[in-house]
Amino acid sequence: MDIQLTLKKIAKSLGIDLRAYHPSRSDSARLGRLMSHYGIDLVFDVGANSGQFARYLRYVGYQGMIVCFEPLPEPYAQLKKLAEMDPGITCAPRMAIGDIDGEITINVAANLESSSILKVMGSHLDGEPQARSVGCETVPIQRLDTIASSYLRESSRQFLKIDVQGYEPQVLAGAVELLTKLTGLQLELSLSPLYEGERGFREMIDLVERDGFTLHDLNPCYSDPTTGRTFQVDALFFRC
Description:
The protein is an alpha/beta fold. It has a domain at about 30-100 and about 145-220 and about 230-240: Rossmann fold (3-Layer(aba) Sandwich). It is about 30% helix and about 30% strand. The protein contains 9 helices and 10 strands. The longest helix has 13 residues, at about 75-85. The chain starts with a helix and ends with a strand.
């Protein structure tokens, strides 16, 4: 038997996926090159949770500023600890981001990462039972256009990442002014609705392309563990 295949099987039994590294096939390598190519030096991370995307950006080689937004107390506390270890990461005051300034109720999921202002659908729970709601929490909410200016620098090239479980349109609606300044944008898009009222991926792509962005990359981020069907992808857009 081919020794590479044997090693891959052994690694798989240990929960490790061994793959040959090819920059053109690597999600992380492509993101790193895109961030470098477009000179991004300021990232707004909306739906930061405990800082997974911020850590990923450091992994791909991004060294610029990251401003994180997270509304739930538990992941926010972890996010604050991450910021204490990395002076390039700033935690905005704990809040949700949307199209209003005030307060809003979030459905808190068992796994926290699947928490959303929208209600989770049964189709999501079939593949991810931990996405179930275990409670609700009222949190502050603000528009990016209300608060982003305090973090902007005169010569910065900004990138906005949004991962808010179906609430992306509302975040964009509250960032009309900021969008005109952005160089890049990442959205989590659902190929099949997972939250009530969630807008389809085709509509979302059309929406941001009308604002002058061009789709550069798609990366699967959530698939059904039983069927293998991909439900969500991260879509990367930049102004060309």
